[in-house]
From TrEMBL:
Coiled coil: none
Naturally occurring in which organism (per UniProt): Streptomyces vulcanius
Domain of life, per lineage: Bacteria
PROSITE patterns xrefs: ABC_TRANSPORTER_1, ABC_TRANSPORTER_2
Protein name (Swiss-Prot/TrEMBL): ABC transporter ATP-binding protein
An example Gene Ontology molecular-function term: ATP binding
Record key words, sorted: ATP-binding, Nucleotide-binding, Transport
């Protein structure tokens, strides 16, 4: 249990996309949740349920059509009018880690240069010392510091992406399928790293994943999405251990386990 007051407050956000044929698709509707300081929330749901859309609205990559996202009582939509300093300050509040670090890391920069660039952008006062600290924090050594993304393993690249996100001491880290592309043992290492980082820095985590086992492992609270709406939310143990909603039960039934019958997973979850 985390009794800290809400740090992140998401209130009734909605996002619709224009479709090529002229129609509109509501990817998120009336989505509301809070995350306390140092807390962790998992957002689960099948593919297309709107998880990434919500994650992107948190960091400001897409703008909600309605509703608000606030950190520490300050609405984030205002950043546009706040100038460079204001935008950087807002970026420091929430940072994001994506599934594929290859796409978000500059292929020309070594790990050390990548972190230096992020720190300089935010006018950090002690760049070199912070680079060493960050590499150490995510378990990368001198060799990795001098390596470019293609010279790193998938797990090391994700460690670097996490270090870059942490560089500016964010209050909240949003991870969108951040371990989905890694094999199981590397996944476990990254999840352990995230747990340690949360413990050491007090950063709150919003963890978007289709993998219920991963969410169970790393989050205190879970929110279940279906077709853009929230069907259930609460403590992870309760939501995934004793789900109240039939959709959550069907999601859980579709996870392979001992004695699992693939026919169960073929029942359409979307019905
Ligand atoms: N830029 C876009 N334009 C039009 N439709 C979009 C756009 N981005 C997402 N969508 C649609 O919005 C819905 C929600 O997508 P979203 O990526 O948020 O779901 P998701 O739960 O994260 O899925 P996945 O786990 O497969 O990434 C889907 O139907 C998707 O096709």
């Amino acid at each position: 249990m985390n009794d800290n007051p809400p740090l992140l407050v998401v209130d009734a956000v909605r996002k619709t996309y224009r479709l090529p044929g002229g129609g509109r698709l509501t990817a998120a509707d009336k989505v509301s949740f809070t995350v306390p300081g140092g807390g962790s929330l998992g957002i689960v749901g099948e593919s297309g349920s709107g998880k990434s859309t919500v994650a992107r609205m948190l960091v400001g990559l897409i703008r909600p059509d309605a509703g608000t996202v606030a950190v520490d009582g300050r609405e984030r939509g205002q950043a546009r009018r706040a100038g460079r300093r204001g935008r950087l300050a807002r970026a420091r509040e929430i940072q994001m880690v994506f599934q594929d670090p290859y796409l978000s890391l500059d292929p020309r920069l070594t790990s050390g240069q990548c972190l230096r660039t992020a720190l300089r952008l935010h006018d950090h006062p002690a760049v070199d010392a912070r680079v060493t600290e960050l590499l150490d924090q995510v378990g990368l050594g001198a060799r990795e510091s001098d390596a470019r993304p293609h010279e790193l393993s998938g797990g090391q690249r994700q460690r670097l992406a996490i270090a870059r996100a942490l560089a500016v001491d964010p209050r909240i880290l949003v991870l969108d399928e951040a371990v989905a592309a890694l094999d199981v043992s590397i996944q476990a290492q990254i999840l352990q790293l995230l747990g340690e980082v949360r413990q050491d820095t007090g950063v709150a985590l919003v963890f978007v994943s289709h993998d219920l086992a991963v969410v169970r492992h790393i989050t205190d609270e879970t929110m279940v999405m279906r077709r853009g709406t929230v069907v259930e939310q609460g403590p992870t143990e309760r939501v995934l251990g004793a789900p109240e909603h039939d959709y959550t039960r069907r999601l859980l039934a579709s996870v392979p386990h001992e004695g699992w019958d693939p026919a169960d997973a073929r029942q359409p979850v979307t019905s």
